[in-house]
Amino acid sequence: MKQIAKSLLLAALVAVPVAAVLADEVAEVKLTADKVQFIFDKKEFTVKAGQKVKLTLVNPEESVTKQPHNILIVKPGKKDAVGLLANNGLTDPDFLTKKQCVPESDDILFHSKLILPGAEETIEFTAPSEPGDYPYLCTYPGHWALMNGVMKVVK
Ligand SMILES: [Cu+2]
């Protein structure tokens, strides 16, 4: 009897169309900050428009630079504008602490907090409905010029 139930369950699982499963799938993406240079380990990743995304940023314990990092996803074409705001943040006493190096800008769609070496943070969001190239960057002042990449949103 148990064997029959198991067979039926397996048959039901196999019968679910693969495409339907993929469309509802959560995109789990992990980026790791380099231990030596101010770069992420990936220059790009791809998600579907409107897809739920779980994005984890890992700052390795063995970091040589011992720098905090964060990650911001911004509107297409806005990497430099947000990066420059981050550099200007040094004049703001709250920027490295209360603001977690996140500038005030409508161009920022999603962001993490600052992540210290040995820590990680996962942010969850829904990918934009508009396909395009959405830059991501670390806005600890001075990092963004190299520490960036592109979230490709496709149909
Ligand atoms: Cu950084």
Instruction: Write the CATH architecture name.
Output: Sandwich
Examine the coordinates and then state which fold CATH places here, giving the name of the CATH topology.
Answer: Immunoglobulin-like
- How many helices in DSSP terms? 3
Q: What fraction strand?
A: 25-35%
Q: Which ligands, by name, code or SMILES, are bound?
A: copper (II) ion
Q: Give the structural class.
A: alpha/beta
Helical percent range? 10-25%
Question: How do the strands of the widest beta sheet line up side by side?
Answer: 2-8-7-4-5
- Record field, number of beta strands: 8
From the structure above, extract its key features.
3-stranded mixed β-sheet, alpha/beta, globular, 155 residues, Immunoglobulin-like, 20% helix, 5-stranded mixed β-sheet
